[in-house]
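ERR on first pass: missing label on line 2. Operator R.T. fixed the label and resubmitted. Corrected input:
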Amino acid sequence: MPEIVVKGVQKTLAGLLTLREINLVAADRTVVGILGPSGCGKSTLFNIISGLMMPDKGSVSIGGRDVTGQTGLVSYMHQKDLLLPSLNVLDNVSIPLVLKGTSRKAARAEAAKHLQTFGLQGFASYYPWQLSGGMKQRAAMLRTYLFSSDIWLLDEPFASLDAITKRKMHTWLTGVLEQFRPTVLFITHDVDEALYLCDKVYVLSECPTVVKLELSIPFSRPRQNRTILDQAYGAARDAVMDALSI
Amino acid sequence: MRKKFVTIANSAVPLVFVGLLLVLWECLVRVMAVQEWLLPGPVRILETLCGNLPMLLKHAQSTLLECLAGFVIAILFSFILSFFMEEIPLLKRAFYPLLVASQTVPIISVAPLFIIWFGYGMLPKVIVVVLVCFFPIALSLLGGLAAVDREYLELFRSMKAGRLATFRMVKLPLALPSFFSGLKISASYSVMGAVIGEWLGAKQGLGIYMTLAQRSFQVDRVFAAILVVTLCSAALFALVSLLERLIIPWNQKTKWREL
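pass 2 clean. output:
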């Protein structure tokens, strides 16, 4: 079961103690939001979880196995879409399959099956510069899914989108999460986004960073794009806001 | 419709301007009765060009052959060197200053050495062309490789991509636009390199044609040769631009730019 446990992670970057001590748990098949001020080391944390960076102290384990410093176990989606301008959508999203050794043709066929779900049907042969911002993010998301279907690290995937597109992406993502049930760690600056999408939220402090608040979201994810009227919503939002000292 | 008209008008302006300059030149030469061995008028040059066309084309052929050979060799060298310099940082630190320093040696001063070593055949000219072209190509390719967004590399590392796969799928394609801008500079340099090589002694080529014409004060022939050299440079430049569009059609920056 892909449960992610981060235990006592500490990291100093360029002489600056960035992460003092981070402990967090993402239970299997849950969506966990990570909120924090700019520059608090959220991306560093993701680099450590994805194995790109070694922590100075502490460990990362997935499904009970220590995987500190191992790459290739989780799928990491950056804020930028990072689609290769030289490849069309289909070839871009099939990159992870090709890297795993699938033949180009088989990879294309496999990737093509998912275009519909990710709202990219009919755009297979388009190049990244021909796509809208939302489409590029969905293509990046499909690439993320094709690398690993069970653990996703999403680093502000919607930060570059306008408010309307972002809202549409939320509704869409809810459906995708429902369908694939991955374990997700989700970095965001948007409190409402976190409350809307996540089962649990961690709020991080300023640098040197510790976990300031761990909050389970008491209401389930809404099925449709409706304003959340749950009584607990206001309290949860206030708690997060307080922790962020907004 | 209006836009099209503007485009036509825009490209007509420099043509008209050049035409006016030529007319002015012709008039001045005639009015002031300038000696032909000093400065011939454009009409005279054009006549010489037409009269000597078969011979000029024969010379141009060997010059172009030297250019293309040197150009291709320079491209191959640049790719091989850039790959190793990009993948092995120690090599980059060792070679980069050498690469820049090599450019401070004036080509015109070493070219005679190649004649001494390799004779009057094509080889010394090809070497000069390689030396002239290599630097802009290698530098633009290295620059392009170094400028690849680190996040792409991190993404590929997180997907457990090997170094070769990363180079082939990410670094190389993303470096190509920069590579092509270097290639375009080299394309125009390459003809110059070949002509310089031929000045010093050759069996055939536009350079030697120019030298001979100049020594016998046939200035109209020198001008005709200059015209052919210019056309060769422009043709090579156009060829590279065409290749660029074919090889990286996805590059937005070149997509709508005129040749």
